[in-house]
């Protein structure tokens, strides 16, 4: 079947409806519009009291911001679809709910797992494997090594799910795929839109 | 030798000399020293030379040159006729020198107008005897002929037209005459001269040939040579060619099919040219002609919009569609209907599966067509809205409804644009559906789940637009719209996802522009209900107050908003509301005067605002200064006074100054009170024009402030304000000529302050004084001396001094031109030129303990300088800046950050400068990415710099570090801070990307 005819008119999610950290985490101290009225710069009397430095030092040592599902989503939602000039996020191929971070299985292990389930735009989408590969490459490059990346096709969304899952799960085959120059080019174009 | 002999001798070797000879002949001819007949006779042997064509050509050239130098009336009418006959006669028998003949004729024409017969003879002679033009190999020859014909067509319209009417054979040979011309200079003229027959002659019979003769050149792919002296661009040719294509309605049967055929081209530039040409045709051809092709055009153009290849092509296609609608509007109803019927049908079909790219494109198409005029807009509304609403009501899907609303919004937006440009509104059709639209949108805003952000935003935008479309909504309907939006602003307390308050405030402000009375009568009272005089413990009116203040950006309701705020403040004050609340109200007032749009008189804010709003506040401060102890409130009062007082003229300012000078003087004397009052006095004095204040009073105030600053304890809060006040007074009020004396009189002469072992307070005051002087730039020697004194301290003193250097260039909104300060245009360069070379030199010899001082001071200075200032000195700065990155103390973080910012700019703009330091730069940047010794901002900035390296530096320079960088960045991917991790991902991607080039090369 012609790839273009798979799904010529997918539903597009409006950007303002996509999950983002700004919305999911209510910010406690939102800067008011009046704050700009009295700008603060490092002062003559105490040059070290610059506001940026103080607010920074206050928070930087305190808390660690853990890598969470939203962060993983932000990493992969901006990947472009190989056939539409749209992002995987706006096509609903990757969804926040389908990302799961599993903590280390035993207290001695440091290895966490990131599981991403992919929903192809149609069950017959012929480029599912490439999309999966793109997501996998992106995460392997962008997450620290203590994460194991597990990319699968969401159950019941693709006719070729089993086959694709096998391919994506197999380290050797992923490595072999990344030796294929034309495949590398496709993946790189997909990832080019990532920030 | 005769002139002709001399000329022939020189012409090939020395053009200028040959010209001089021709000019001499011309002046002799003019002075009657030479007879025309003799001149012609002298040409005889050469112009008829049987053996050598080039000599014949040059002889004609001589004649042309001589004629070109002759002034008006030098030749009689008979002489000119004879010459004309002579030249034309030659052409019939001999084509050598035809270009020169054309030049000679142009010169002759310049000496006296031709009659019809001559014009026609000249034209015929050329078309009959020199056809086709391309037989002449020299561009200059053809150029002269083309110029001659251009002249004939431009000046003798009637004569040349009669020629064509009298002889059917003339036109075909005229058209084919220019065939095959390739030179852009000639083409520019040919395209231009062809416009005459195209627009003025009856060319119906020859339309196709005429059209093809120019369309052969489409699309223009000409690229001017790199050092083209003629300056003809492809765009010039395109413009002229386009005018030709669009010149005559008779071209339409050939133009549109061929243009649309070329629209399928794979070249984007060709498509751009086609769209430009189509637009020109739509404007140029008769509406009746456009009517014949309107649907064909739609069928082709729509693909550019429905499946966007390039955004600009879509925009141009939309423009073309709109132009067609506009052209057809002028004629009867039928053509426009015939054009819009398929458009509306197709758009309606796309609406059925909204939201898709196609439904979005339909919105754009309908917007473009509706914007072309009320008639078209009316038809669009009648054709689309019934379907749109039935789909809307027939669907439960919020996504689909959102898609439909977006299309509706596009159509309404067109009405707003129409309303702005065309006063005679025709809005009945939209009015009929507006009620339904308002209902649907209000329902969406009130009842849809709050998480459906895009749906609610589309409704919000739609409401604001409907209210803004002039006259569309009834008063009742706009009232409901205003109420709904007001309610969102006041009562939706959502945080995070679903919060659309910011957009709602914006929508309300937009509405206030169109229906100020509705907002004034309905929204403002609702806001006041939410703002208590004395807030109850739990409630926080902050967001309401912020929203209220933002309404002041609309001029028509500004006065009401400001007045309500003032009254609210007064009642809050009298009823003893908490200080925080009072301060918020004052902040809101300050916001309205700073970012709102108060009424202006003669370009400045109305003086009445000062007397009504600021003056009472000043009176309050004066009378209650003892118990009103909150200095942060006093600062806001000061800022309000400042913003209202500073633009006012001397007269008002003097009155205000004299009114307040007394109590301020006594307040300043009292040390405890003065410190508290400092934020107010600072802003008050900043507003005054220097000529208003009394010199003695200023010295008195300066002295008092100096006292305060020198005796301040390190912990005292107002010390900074006092120092800024000193900078202000020094900069603005003190006569530069008596500067040193005044400083001495006030005990703040910098030399004295820094003598011995200066206290931290003295150093602060010294920096404040120097800052005021440096920005002023009027006391060059003194400022230089003082700055040097400060620089000298670097080698002996601790880090405190070094850190203070950053304050010299720190922006200060007090020291500004708006506050009547003296701000030298070059002060940044001046400080740079004095301080930086000194420090870069001193650091080389400095010992280990004072070295960091120089790094800190240096980056403190560089931090605030624009890149253009430091650009030239970068090579000498790189080394110290690299060492700055090695600083490790926690107080040095901002120093490192500013060094990194400079490296970022350098990598962006002048990466060659750091190229030789690649190794040490990469290592140091990597070191800066390690936590927790580096702050998050430093880590992130270092990663940003590092990410630039693979892109900005030469590949072979960075490739050796790829392994190392990629490996070490793995740690950064696990940084504690999310923002740092984001940068680490970007950075690592950039370095991983280096790999690809490698493979391509092999």
UniProtKB/TrEMBL annotation, chain A:
It comes from the Eukaryota. Pfam families: FeS_assembly_P (PF01883). Residues 42-58 have a biased composition (Low complexity). One of its GO terms (biological process) is chromosome segregation. The lineage of its organism: Eukaryota, Fungi, Dikarya, Ascomycota, Pezizomycotina. Belongs to the MIP18 family. This is MIP18 family-like domain-containing protein. InterPro entries: FSCA_dom_sf, MIP18, MIP18-like. Keywords: Chromosome partition.
């Amino acid at each position: 079947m012609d790839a273009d005819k798979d799904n010529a008119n997918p539903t597009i999610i409006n950007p303002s409806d996509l999950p983002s950290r700004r919305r999911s985490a209510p910010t406690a101290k939102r800067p008011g519009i009046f704050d700009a009225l009295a700008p603060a710069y490092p002062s003559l009397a105490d040059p070290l009291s610059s506001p940026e430095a103080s607010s920074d030092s206050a928070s930087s040592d305190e808390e660690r911001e853990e890598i969470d599902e939203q962060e993983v989503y932000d990493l992969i939602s901006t990947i472009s679809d190989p056939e539409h000039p749209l992002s995987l996020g706006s096509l609903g191929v990757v969804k926040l709910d389908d990302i799961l971070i599993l903590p280390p299985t035993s207290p001695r292990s440091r290895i966490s797992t990131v599981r991403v389930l992919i929903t192809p735009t149609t069950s017959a989408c012929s480029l599912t494997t490439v999309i999966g590969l793109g997501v996998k490459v992106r995460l392997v490059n962008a997450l620290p090594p203590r994460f194991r990346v597990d990319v699968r096709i969401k159950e019941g969304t693709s006719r070729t799910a089993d086959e694709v899952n096998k391919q994506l799960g197999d380290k050797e085959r992923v490595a072999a795929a990344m030796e294929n120059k034309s495949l590398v080019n496709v993946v790189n174009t997909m990832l080019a839109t990532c920030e | 030798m005769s002139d002709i002999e001399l000329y022939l001798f020189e012409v090939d070797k020395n053009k200028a000399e040959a010209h001089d000879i021709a000019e001499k002949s011309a002046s002799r001819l003019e002075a009657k020293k030479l007879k025309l007949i003799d001149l012609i006779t002298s040409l005889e042997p050469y112009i008829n030379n049987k053996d050598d064509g080039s000599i014949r050509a040059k002889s004609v050239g001589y004649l042309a040159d001589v004629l070109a130098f002759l002034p008006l009336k030098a030749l009689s009418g008979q002489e000119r006729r004879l010459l004309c006959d002579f030249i034309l006669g030659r052409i019939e028998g001999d084509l050598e020198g035809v270009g020169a003949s054309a030049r000679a004729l142009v010169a002759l024409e310049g000496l006296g107008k031709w009659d019809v017969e001559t014009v026609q003879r000249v034209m015929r002679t050329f078309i009959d005897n020199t056809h086709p033009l391309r037989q002449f190999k020299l561009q200059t020859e053809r150029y002269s002929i083309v110029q001659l014909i251009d002249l004939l067509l431009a000046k003798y319209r009637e004569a040349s037209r009669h020629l064509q009417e009298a002889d059917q054979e003339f036109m075909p040979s005229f058209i084919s005459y220019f065939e095959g011309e390739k030179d852009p200079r000639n083409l520019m003229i040919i395209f231009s001269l062809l416009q005459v027959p195209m627009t003025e002659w009856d060319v119906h019979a020859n339309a196709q040939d005429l059209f093809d003769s120019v369309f052969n050149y489409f699309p223009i792919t000409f690229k001017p040579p790199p050092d083209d002296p003629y300056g003809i661009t492809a765009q010039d040719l395109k413009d002229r060619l386009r005018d030709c294509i669009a010149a005559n309605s008779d071209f339409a049967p050939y133009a549109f099919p061929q243009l649309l055929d070329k629209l399928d081209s794979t070249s984007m530039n060709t498509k751009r040219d086609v769209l430009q040409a189509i637009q020109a045709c739509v404007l140029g051809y008769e509406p009746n002609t456009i009517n014949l092709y309107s649907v064909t055009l739609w069928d082709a153009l729509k693909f550019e919009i429905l499946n966007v290849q390039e955004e600009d092509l879509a925009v141009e296609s939309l423009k073309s569609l709109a132009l067609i609608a506009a052209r057809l509007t002028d004629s009867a109803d039928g053509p426009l209907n015939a054009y819009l019927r398929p458009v509306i049908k197709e758009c309606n079909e796309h609406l059925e599966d909204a939201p898709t790219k196609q439904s979005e494109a339909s919105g754009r198409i309908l917007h473009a067509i509706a914007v072309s005029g009320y008639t078209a807009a009316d038809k669009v509304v009648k054709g689309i809205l019934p379907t749109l609403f039935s789909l809307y009501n027939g669907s439960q899907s919020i996504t689909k409804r959102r898609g439909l609303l977006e299309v509706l919004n596009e159509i309404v937006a067109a009405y707003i644009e129409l309303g702005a440009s065309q006063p005679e509104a025709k809005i009945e059709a939209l009015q009929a559906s507006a009620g339904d639209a308002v209902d649907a949108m209000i329902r969406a805003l009130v009842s849809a789940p709050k998480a459906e952000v895009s749906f609610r935003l589309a409704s919000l935008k739609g409401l604001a637009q409907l209210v803004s479309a002039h006259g569309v909504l009834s008063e009742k309907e706009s009232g409901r719209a205003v109420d709904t939006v007001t309610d969102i602003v006041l009562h939706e307390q959502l945080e995070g996802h679903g919060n659309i308050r910011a957009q709602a405030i914006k929508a309300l402000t937009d509405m206030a522009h169109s229906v100020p009375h509705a907002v004034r009568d309905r929204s403002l009272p609702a806001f006041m209900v939410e703002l208590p005089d004395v807030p109850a413990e739990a409630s926080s009116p902050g967001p309401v107050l912020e929203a209220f203040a933002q309404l002041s950006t609309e001029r028509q309701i500004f006065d009401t908003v400001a007045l309500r705020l003032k009254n609210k403040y007064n009642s809050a004050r009298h009823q003893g509301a908490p200080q925080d609340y009072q301060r918020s109200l004052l902040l809101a007032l300050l916001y309205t005067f700073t970012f709102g749009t108060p009424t202006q008189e003669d370009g400045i804010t109305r003086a009445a605002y000062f007397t009504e709003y600021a003056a009472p506040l000043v009176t309050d401060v004066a009378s209650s200064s003892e118990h009103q102890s909150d200095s942060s409130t006093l600062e806001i009062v000061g800022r309000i006074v400042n913003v209202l007082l500073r633009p006012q003229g001397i007269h008002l300012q003097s009155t205000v100054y004299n009114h307040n000078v007394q109590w301020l003087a006594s307040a300043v004397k009292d040390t405890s009170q003065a410190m508290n009052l400092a934020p107010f006095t600072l802003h008050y004095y900043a507003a005054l024009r220097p000529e208003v204040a009394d010199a003695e009073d200023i010295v008195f105030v300066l002295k008092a402030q100096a006292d305060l600053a020198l005796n301040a304890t390190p912990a005292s809060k107002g010390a900074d304000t006092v120092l800024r006040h000193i900078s202000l007074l020094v900069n603005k009020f003190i006569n530069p000529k008596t500067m040193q004396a005044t400083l001495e009189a006030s005990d703040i002469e910098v030399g004295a302050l820094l003598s011995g072992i200066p206290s931290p307070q003295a150093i602060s005051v010294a920096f404040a004084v120097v800052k005021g002087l440096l920005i002023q730039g009027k006391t060059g020697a003194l400022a230089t001396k003082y700055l040097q004194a400060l620089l000298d301290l670097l080698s002996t003193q601790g880090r405190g001094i070094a850190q203070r250097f950053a304050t010299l260039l720190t922006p200060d909104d007090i020291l500004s031109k708006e506050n009547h300060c003296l701000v030298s245009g070059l002060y940044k360069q001046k400080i740079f030129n004095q301080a930086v070379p000194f420090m870069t030199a001193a650091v080389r010899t400095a010992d280990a303990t004072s070295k960091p001082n120089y790094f800190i001071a240096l980056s403190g200075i560089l931090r605030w300088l624009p890149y253009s200032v430091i650009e030239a000195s970068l090579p000498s700065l790189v080394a110290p800046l690299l060492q700055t990155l090695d600083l490790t103390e926690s107080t040095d973080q901002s120093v490192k950050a500013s060094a990194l910012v400079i490296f970022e700019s350098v990598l962006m703009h002048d990466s060659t400068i750091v190229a030789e330091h690649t190794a040490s730069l990469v290592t140091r940047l990597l070191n800066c990415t390690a936590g927790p010794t580096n702050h998050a901002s430093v880590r992130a900035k270092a990663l940003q710099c590092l990410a630039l390296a693979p892109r900005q530096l030469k590949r072979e320079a960075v490739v050796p570090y790829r392994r190392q960088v990629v490996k070490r960045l793995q740690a950064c991917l696990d940084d504690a801070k999310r923002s740092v991790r984001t940068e680490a991902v970007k950075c690592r991607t950039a370095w991983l990307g280096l790999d690809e080039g490698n493979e391509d090369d092999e």
